[in-house]
Design goal:
Layout: H1 2-22, E1 32-36, H2 45-50, E2 57-66, E3 72-74, E4 81-95, E5 103-113, E6 116-120, E7 134-139, E8 143-145, E9 148-150, E10 153-159, E11 164-167, E12 178-180, H3 181-194
Parallel strand pairs: 1-6
Antiparallel strand pairs: 2-4, 2-7, 3-4, 4-5, 5-6, 7-10, 8-9, 10-11, 11-12
Length: 198
């Protein structure tokens, strides 16, 4: 009895491993993965607030559309870097000249291009940017790369409907705790009011 139950499970496991290695057709998968690391940043809210004015754009925004088909690559020293544009709508602007309702494109390191999967170790995972999700974003200025105007985020916090925020700035984020957004927002405004914005 045990044997008849085990064999189908082993067959399923073998099929799962075959699909993972070769794809559903059983032909070898020729894709490769390229990992990129940028400079590490301290994503703890205390550190982010203390260095707030080093960011050109600070907004609370809602994801409007993530389009993996728009992923593009740029040359690097060792290999290409791929970026996936994430379109957001500004809900609240703290710095950077945007207004509520403005469209903004975030340039997220990573994505699929051809048969290559690019993963940015020090960038937010693309999969966190689901349509309708809200984020607090601290980003660099908007620049044009490969004909796309976009801002590269330094810090990204996912906001939930309980008024809490969680750091999703990097695949390697070590801050797994949630923080109260209202308290963070009040401290951020005080910090920005105390420092020149030029």
């Amino acid at each position: 009895m045990l044997r008849t139950r085990t064999l189908p499970l082993l067959g399923l496991l073998a099929w799962t491993l075959l699909v993972a290695a070769c794809g559903p057709s059983g032909t070898p998968n020729t894709s490769k993965t390229v990992r990129s690391s940028a400079y590490p940043l301290d994503h703890h809210p205390d550190a982010v607030i203390a260095s707030a004015t080093s960011n050109m754009i600070i907004v609370r925004a809602r994801v409007h559309r993530t389009d993996p088909q728009q992923t593009y690559s740029v040359p690097g020293i060792d290999h290409e870097f791929a970026f996936t544009p994430v379109n957001v709508v500004v809900i609240e602007a703290f710095r950077g000249g945007h207004n509520p309702g403005d469209a903004l494109t975030l340039r997220i390191l990573g994505g699929e291009r051809g048969n290559i999967s690019y993963i940015g170790n020090d960038a937010p995972p693309i999969e966190v940017f689901t349509d309708g999700s809200e984020f607090m974003v601290f980003a660099q200025e908007v620049v044009t790369i490969d004909s796309i105007d976009g801002a590269t985020p330094n810090h990204v916090y996912l906001l939930d409907d309980r008024g809490e925020m969680k750091d999703v700035s990097s695949r390697q984020s070590v801050v797994s705790a949630t923080f109260e957004f209202a308290q963070f927002e009040a401290r951020l405004r005080r910090q920005l009011d105390q420092q020149p914005t030029d």
